[in-house]
Model the fold of this input.
Amino acid sequence: METTTSEPLFPAMLTHDLLQHRPADNVEFLNSLPAEEAAELIASLPPERAVEILDQPELTAAPEIVQLLPPERAAALLTGVAADRATDIIHLLEAPARANLLARLDPETRASIERLLVYPPNTAGSLMTTEFVSVPSTWTVEQTLQYIRQVERTRETIYAIYVLDQQTKRLVQAIPLRRLISAQGDAPILSAARSFAPITTSPLTDREEVARLFRKYDLLAVPVVDSAGRVLGIVTVDDAIDAMLAESTEDVQKFGGVLALEKPYIQIGFAQMIGKRAGWLCALFLSEMLTASAMQHFESELEKAIVLTLFIPLIMSSGGNSGSQATSLLIRSLALHELQLSDWWRVVLRELPTGIALGAILGVIGLARIALWQKLGLYDYGEHWLLVGLTVAAALVGIVTFGSLSGSMLPFVLQRVGFDPASASAPFVATLVDVTGLVIYFSVATIILRGTLL
Amino acid sequence: METTTSEPLFPAMLTHDLLQHRPADNVEFLNSLPAEEAAELIASLPPERAVEILDQPELTAAPEIVQLLPPERAAALLTGVAADRATDIIHLLEAPARANLLARLDPETRASIERLLVYPPNTAGSLMTTEFVSVPSTWTVEQTLQYIRQVERTRETIYAIYVLDQQTKRLVQAIPLRRLISAQGDAPILSAARSFAPITTSPLTDREEVARLFRKYDLLAVPVVDSAGRVLGIVTVDDAIDAMLAESTEDVQKFGGVLALEKPYIQIGFAQMIGKRAGWLCALFLSEMLTASAMQHFESELEKAIVLTLFIPLIMSSGGNSGSQATSLLIRSLALHELQLSDWWRVVLRELPTGIALGAILGVIGLARIALWQKLGLYDYGEHWLLVGLTVAAALVGIVTFGSLSGSMLPFVLQRVGFDPASASAPFVATLVDVTGLVIYFSVATIILRGTLL
Done:
């Protein structure tokens, strides 16, 4: 559908109303509309405001909107949008629309977008923009400030100034604007720098690592340099914040056993939602079938002591729960670099006593429950009820210890073999512990109940 | 223990080495030392560097270090530290040490710290600093720039300038420094402002909400205003990033069924670790006891058809897994405000078909597994194996649907009754689904197997 501004779908009042609010608030409103109406509205706005709106990563339908706008208009607006954001939008267009739009851009914008399009998603290269302030190292403070005044409108940030070697174009220093403001005008620009080498990153660095630099060094921007030390672009703090948020959403979803969603929940289609969930669910189901095999293996014990089956769900779930706890703790510790791979044995030394203590607490409660029901006449667990209770208690110690240990080691194992430790999901840990839990339970039962029930 | 600089524990070389690196890197090294040695080292550094190090929130032992330093020295250093950070450190001191230190601070520093100490943790008030740039609305751009040059060294940020009404001291505008830089010097300061009212927050606003403002409006600082509109302080983006990180760590830990840890995993004592985990684990264990009651209730069915017990773990875990998936998706959607409380019915309409479809997929796999084992002679499920298979398949559809529905509704219910939706943990969902899952399984079995096995 092509939209035109000659037959406006919306009254001019609505356009006027949008202008009374901030672009970020406009985006919230536009997100609640179908893409056609959003495109119509954007077309009715003054170009500067339309650019500001398209500049917001929160505008989820931006690629659709750009495709719905008249191509000339779309190209004109994208030229005003920050290069990193324009690249993200173009990246999501289908191939014909992408080629069509790129062809209409002015050569300079097209070149910088094409340079950025080559970097894989979720890398520093895909987050960076080429609109930064750089000056030669021979300039003075005043020259630099003059230059900043000229280019301010076209740069994503002016709060970090990148000083380049005149010959090699390598990055020499990154200077915060605040240091320039209070420096002497005729002093050489490098006199305002601190003595440390600038913090930099490479274009293929993962966004999680980039976010860590911002957190650690409290930066407003990080330069992305090539192997020769030349600045390719910069990542600004607002993009780092968006990357952090996307990472933590992914972590929670992965921990819940879902493939990360690329869009908000309500915008995911039915088939796509099934696709994101069915894979893991089936994999877990197939693994969990081992519990049926384990149960079959202990069939004769089951038939002799049917009372044992009563506690299977209780015991298995305790193993899964203690495993989830340990996994969630270790995922974060590894993600925040509080722990290194080589610290795994320190974790084992903590989880072993922790698991035994937690298992003992649950074991005492479990034994008390069985004794209470028996004594109060609520249920008859048979003449060997005490031995049954002891079996449950001993099995709980074993299973909770196993759950804590395997739940805490799983993130280490994943990181060791090159996966994100955050891929360890609660359902996966529960499945891992369930099968072993059954084996522990029946093995303990065989020892304690031999000669009585079994 | 009092440390003195007259008998240095470390060679001067180590001090010199620290100065070659950034304060943030020094912090990483100091975190790896016992507090006594870290205090000794900090005492040996030039005061400006010691202040920069204490300024980093990542220095975990800062309160201990401050207590180990000679009181006069500690007070002198804290005067240089940003007011928000100094408040955090003093907040963590024991009462006598706190009073002792406060008494030694100069009146101005003490007053600003005491003002900040009243705000509860995790609020905008506890994150804010009082070191911001404010100017009267009657000034010109050049006057403001002159003033910024003077005060630059003592302000946490100069990239946002707060323009106050001269009489009432109310906040009129917040102007980014970049707009001043490119404005005419003799223009009134307010001419550099945009037409929108400034984004503000109140001192008791939760840090999660504050972080959302930064994300939405791409800010570098947010002013915290009282009910009369006067600026109490500002929250800067680096503190907002730390708050976001702490929130997402808390979310993952809560989702794993652990109370949020205040310190890194390896620094938590054994008793404290048990305390963080035992409460939830016991609560879940007690709820899960209902599964034993449910099993007791179906005892006669169990005895007649022991083959049914073989699939209990498999069926229950599938319910828990589908519930975890749904919960993790909805926790994030609610946290990111993609969905409102009133959208619950839209989610029901999505989860109902999704749950049925996922359950049907697992049901088909389950039935195939039973048929395959039976036909291949791997296990004999008896003459009614097909009915047993159908029972398992039908129960899976019911349980996965129930799991998806209850897992997705739990975060809504929690938010509705005033809890953080992120308090919904995977173990809690699993427990919720386990008991109902058993009832569904045996009810389906009673219907399908009546007259044959039951």
User: Anything to note?
Assistant: Residues 1-8 of chain B have pLDDT under 50 and may be disordered. Chain B touches chain A through 111 residues (CB under 8 Å). The radius of gyration of chain B is 31 Å. Residues 140 and 179 of chain B are 13 Å apart (CA to CA).
